[in-house]
Amino acid sequence: MYNLKNILYAAVVGDALGVPVEFKKRDTYYIDKMTSGGTWEQKPGSWSDDTSFTLPLMENLVEHGDYDQLMQKFENYMFRNQYTPDGEAFGIGQGCAKAIRNWSINHYPALKCGDPSVYANGNGALMRLAPLAIHLRKVGKTAQRLELTRNYTCLTHRHPRSVMASFIYLEILHFLLNGEHLTEILKKLPNHLESNLQDYSEEWNEFTEFADIFQPKFKQTNRQDIKSTGYVVDTLQACLWCALNATSVDEAVLLAVNLGDDTDTIASITATLASCMYPNDQINPRWVEQLRNKTLLDSIIDPFVQMELKNSD
Ligand SMILES: [Mg+2]
User: Fold this and answer.
1) By residue range, what is the domain housing residue 38?
2) Residue 19 C-alpha to ligand 1 middle, in angstroms?
3) For the whole model, what pTM was predicted?
């Protein structure tokens, strides 16, 4: 039985462990606990935009809100500091900021807010979509999962490469949440996607950008050849590499947070993957205790988990 709360909290922990060392160069530091200061001068246990965009998605799913209502929540984060540990929004990515401005100032339709440029392929959609995979874990129709995954991605990132990254990540989470093993999922995923993406030719054309992940020896890739930037292809690759090369959730998160560069997002996504891979392994409870504003986290995560457990009865 999956502990959904653990999966969601593990992601917040990964985010918070990574915040103090975001943009730091690999191997100029070593993190194995919650620390303060660093790039954003935050207190220990401060989580960032990754969580601040994930919380509105959970809340919106509980409220059965539409895409506009979700964009409004994103706006409330960026302009009104809601969904933050200490009442301050920090470190918001360019792609997400532009999408929110498109919605609130330029009045674009929600599904057209993401930048469609090839240069707008940051990890800002990938970082917030795990609750959607949880929400869709019992949905057997692949086409339905893919359509929703594309739509939720397009709110902030509309280039087919970003959508393809979300397809890969959310389908992996879907199969993990249904008890399959990551190595087996990676083996079957190219064929699975090819046969289900006939109506998504632009996205399918981007598949080659992600080809390394599906090589049989991907797990054995040298650490120095794993890039940990905020580019969505690098991020997905780094997170899967960490998940494959660890034997517990804590170990995976520490591998990720010590890669350098986009540490918070990579640790957060890695924590999600690893906690889906190891349903009986809890993220270190001491790290969970140290998270800032647990009242806010609980107030959004608990109703979401309760709804999801009720839906699986
Ligand atoms: Mg962040």
Assistant:
1) 4-311
2) 7
3) 0.97
